[in-house]
Amino acid sequence: MEKLPMPHYVNCQGSQPRWQKKSLTTLLLPLILLSAQPIYAATQTTTVYSVNIPSGALGNSLSRFAAQTGTAFSFDPNLTNGLTAPSLNGSFTAHEGLVRLLTGSHLRLSQRTDGSYTLVKIAKNTTSKGAITLSPLAVTGSRGYSGNEPLHFDSTTIKGKDIEKFGVIHPVDIFKTTPGVLSGEARSSGSLDVNIRGLQGQGRVLTTVDGASNQTALYRGYQGVSNRSFIDPDFIGRVDISKGPTGKGGIGAIGGVVEIKTIEASDILLDGQKIGLRLKGSLLNNHSNPDDYQRNDWPSPSKNAFFDAKNRTGSIVFAVAEPSYELLFGASQRKRGNYHSGKHGPGAKKRGMPGYLCQSDPQDCLIPQFSEQMAGYSLYAMGDAVPNTSEDSQSLLGKGKIRFGDGHEISAIVSHYQNLYGESYVADMANLSQTFMILDQGPLTRLNMNRHSLNYKWEPSSNPWINLDIGVWQTRVNDRPRTSNNTLGDKKFMRTVGMNLSNTSLFELSMQDIELNYGASFIRERTGPSEGKWEYAVNREGERKEGHLFLNGSYMLTGRLTLMGGWDYKSYQVEDYSPVPSLRRKLASGKVNNKQDHAHGYWAGAKFELNNETALHAKYTYAPRFPSMVEGIRGYMMSVDDYIKPEISKNIEFGLTSRFPDVIADNDSVDIKISYFDNRVKDYINRSWMDDYWSMYISNIKAAKFAGLELASVYHSDHFDARLSMNYYTKVRFCTENEGCVARSLPSDYATNHIPPKYAVSLDLTRKFLDDKMSINARVSHYGQRSVPAAKPGQGSAALLAPIIWRPATVADISLTARMNKHVEFEFGVDNIFDKYYIQPLSLGYIPSPGRTFRAGITTYF
C-alpha cells in the first residue's frame, strides 16, 4: 500500500494514555492499542483532537474518527463485521481515541517492519485483504482553539489555548471558568493555592507539574498556612482537574488533584515541521515600581508608561520532533511592579497624605490619616498602588523523550523556577479593630524551585497484560519569606522525592473486557532551615513519608452499563527533628516517637448510557488523609495531639452528562453536565487555641461537611462558542462534640478563610471571524458572599486568624486575538474592564485585586 505524505509521523506504539485522575474509565485507558491499520497523521502523538462519535458499528466509528481527526489508516472490513464501538465524546490523542473505540473488539495494533501498524485479532494474526483506505484530511494542530470541549463527569480540562485567550497575569485566573475551583491568597506571591469544593490546604488538594508534586507550605502567622505551587504560565500546555478523592497521583488528596502538564513539541511546531521555534512577549500597564512606594512622598506612585517595558512577559521555546525522539528547551521571564487597585467600588477613599509617617516609621502607616475607615473591608485607597504585589521571575524548561523497540519510551524533564516577589505578611493586616495596617513596601521574598523527573513506559503491541508506567521525581524548594514587622525570616528548604509505578492489564470475562490498573506510589517530604539552624523563632523541622498501593478496575456489564471500583492501602510516618526537646514527640520511655499509621480506602461507581448522547453517573468514595507536615510536626506556639487520627472522606457524587447536536444550526452542539456532591469528612483536622497551653493545638473534630450543585454547559458552532459555569453550595458545616454541627467556621481554624462563595457564575464567549483568523473573547465572572459566616476569633496577643470578609463582585475581561499568518499572532486584552475595586474570595488578608489592566502581546512561530 502506498504511504501517504505526512508532515509528522505518529509512532502509536510509543504514545501513552494521559493519566487523567477522573472516573476509573479514564484512569485505565486500555493498554490494548488495537490497530488493524497502518496509521499516519499530520500531527505528533501528543496532539489532542476533539471528537464526537456516537456508539455504533465499529467500521463506521473508525471512519468517523478518521474524518474528525484527519488520521489516515486502513483496515480489513472483515475484521470489524458485526462489531460495535462505544460512543466517543471528548479530547483524545489518536492513540487514546483508537484505544477506546476498539475496547471489547478483540483487535489491537501490530507493528509492521516499515514502522506502520495494522489491525490484528488478539488471539491470532490476520491477513489483511480487500483493505479499505480512508482519505487523509487537513488537521489543525494542537495550537488551534477548539470550543468543542467535552464535559467529563468528575473532571475538567483547561487547554493551553483556552488559557492564552485572555492571557495570564496572575496564575489563579486560569480557574475563572471552572465551577467549584478557586485559589486562595490569589494576589500575593504569584502562586496557586487551589480550593476544590471547599477543601484546601494540608495536602487535601494536590497540585503537580508533569507528575511531580509542586507544593510548599508557608506559615503566615496567626492567619494560617499558605500552600503554594509555582509555574510559569507560558509553559502550561494543559491543566487537568479531578474533583474529589482520586487515583494514583493523588496521595492523600481527598479534595482533588490539579495536574499541570507543560508544553510539548507539538505545541510549538508548525504543520510539516520537525524543528521549530516559538517567541512570545507581552506588555502590561497598571503597575508601578515597588521601590517608589518608600521614596515617594505620596502613598501611591504613578503608573509606569505602557511602552517603557518595565512590566512585561517574554519566552523562547525551541523544539525538535522525530519518530524516535523529541526535544524541547524553553526560557521565560515575567516582570511587573506593584499593581494598582480599581477605582469603582466599596474601597477606601483618600483623606490626606501620610508621606513622612510611612518613611520615618516603616512599621505602621496609620490608616485614618489618609483613608476612610471601612470596617470589614480593605483599607487600601481606591486606584492606589497595592504594595508588595510585584513579581520578577525566571523559568527554564528542558524535556527529552526517546522511543525504541516494541513500545518502549523513556522521558526526562528538568525545570528551574526562581522568583523575587512582593508579599504581604497577612497577619499584620487582619486586625479586627481596623485602626491600623502595615501598608508600606517591604523586602522582597526570594524563592528557588527545581524539579527533575525520569519516566519509563512500556506498551508492547502484542501483550494486553502490559502497559507499564514507572516514574521517579524530586522537587527542591528554597525560600526566605517575609515575616512580621517588615522583615525577612529564616531561609527554609523543602525537599520532596516521589515514585509512581502502575500497570494496566486487559482480559476477558463473559466475552466482555475487564480493565485493571494497579500499582504503588511513594512520597518523602523533608523541611527545615537552609543554613542548619533557625536564627529566629523555631519553625517546623522534620520528615514525612507516605506509601500507597492501589487497584482499580472497570467492567462493561452491558452495552450501556459500565461498573467501576477500586481499593487502596496507605501508610505514613512522620519524624520530628525539632532542636527544642520540649517540641519533640516523646513516648513514656522518653524516646522520640516517630508517629506512624495506616489505613485503607475504596470506591465504587457506575455509568449508564441512556442513549448515544446522555449518560448517568454515580460514585461513592471512602478515602483517608493522613496529617500533613504542618499538622504532624510541632512548631512555634503549635502543639499537636499525639493521638491524631487521619481524616476520612466519605464522598457521594451523581449527575448526568449530555450532548445535543444541531440545536440552532447544522454542525452545532450543546453539552451539559449537572452534578451533585456531598462530601462528609470524618475526623476533620482542625486548629484551635488552647488557653491552658497558651498555644495553638492541632487535633480532630467530629466532622466537616460540604455539599453543592455544579453546572457546566458549552455551546459550540463553526464561528461561535459559549461556556457557562455555575456552582452553588447547599451545605457547609463543621461538627464538634460540644456544639454539634454549626453553619460557620470554627475559631482559629485554618478553614476560616477557605470557605468558598455561596455561589459563583462565569460566562465565556468567543466569536470568530475571517476564516477563524480573528476572534473576540469576553468573560464575565460573578461570585457571591461566603457560604457560611465566620466564628469570632480566639483570644491571644492578637486577633487569632481573623476572617477576611469579601463582598459580592462582578468582573469582566475582554480580548482580541488575530492570526496574521501561520507565523504571527497578536493578542490585545483588558482585564477588569470596568475597573472594579474588589477583594478576591479566599484571601488571607485585606488585599484588593488589580484594577483595569491593558495587555498587548505577540507570538511568532518559525
UniProtKB/TrEMBL annotation:
InterPro entries, per database record:
Beta-barrel_TonB, Beta-barrel_TonB_sf, Plug_dom, Plug_dom_sf, Secretin/TonB_short_N, TonB-dep_rcpt-like, TonB_rcpt_CS
Q: Which residue positions does the secretion signal occupy?
A: 1-41
Q: How does it sit in the membrane?
A: Multi-pass membrane protein
Quote the subcellular location field of this record: Cell outer membrane
Q: Which UniProt keywords apply?
A: Cell outer membrane, Ion transport, Iron, Iron transport, Membrane, Signal, TonB box, Transmembrane, Transmembrane beta strand, Transport
Q: Name one Pfam family in it.
A: TonB_dep_Rec_b-barrel
Q: Which GO terms describe its biological process?
A: siderophore transmembrane transport
The domain of life is Bacteria
> Which Gene3D superfamilies does the record match to this protein?
3.55.50.30, TonB-dependent receptor, beta-barrel domain, TonB-dependent receptor, plug domain
Would you name any one GO CC term? cell outer membrane
> What does the record list as coiled-coil region(s)?
none
Keyword Transmembrane assigned to the entry: answer is yes
- Which residue ranges does the record assign to the Secretin/TonB short N-terminal domain? 71-122
- Which residue ranges does the UniProt annotation give for the motif TonB C-terminal box? 845-862
The Gene Ontology terms for molecular function here are: siderophore uptake transmembrane transporter activity
Similarity comment text for this entry: Belongs to the TonB-dependent receptor family.
Q: What is this protein called?
A: Secretin/TonB short N-terminal domain-containing protein
The taxonomic lineage of its organism, from the top, reads: Bacteria, Pseudomonadati, Pseudomonadota, Gammaproteobacteria, Enterobacterales
